[in-house]
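Most newcomers find our protein records easier to grasp once they have seen one. To make this concrete, we reproduce a full record directly below:

…
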Amino acid sequence: MSTVLNTVSASSAEASRRSNRAAAHGPRAFADVSFADFHALVDLNARYASVLDSGDWDAWPEFFVDECVYQILPRENHERGLPLAALWFESKGMLKDRVYGIKETLFFDPYYQRHLIGMPLILSLDDEIIEAETNYAVLRTKTEQIGDIYNTGRYLDRIRRTPQGLRFESRICVYDSEMIPNSIIYPI
């Protein structure tokens, strides 16, 4: 298990710089990561993917603390520190509003998602917070059509330890392409 230890910062531009520094300096063993912590993080991502892939939209906001940030933004904007995001929510209440929109008000061709989530690279951790970067790919299948690659990128996560288990304080989905198909309806 190889990871990199870097300083903690809330800004997405700083998170990108941290990630770039990690790649430039190569992996180092991070002795403070226990198997239990690593397993809990992998389990969090697996349950997150399962909820989204099954369309259990009401369960999605419960992966987050009340005061949270969820963004989907292109890599170029993230690397330049530009604030423009395809989706930007700043609380669990806003996530619940998005769920209501998905279920009740948005009009779109339904499709199925399948998330492929890599192993997390733990950037820092302490008794309260884990910061990690994890690659993802989302496949999309519309009824009576061949599946396609819908979105690829990386999650930049700030995860809080709570009595209920790990919860996202922030999940920034940085997608690799500057183009997205039509619109993003479902969470990534």
About this structure: The longest strand covers residues 148-162.
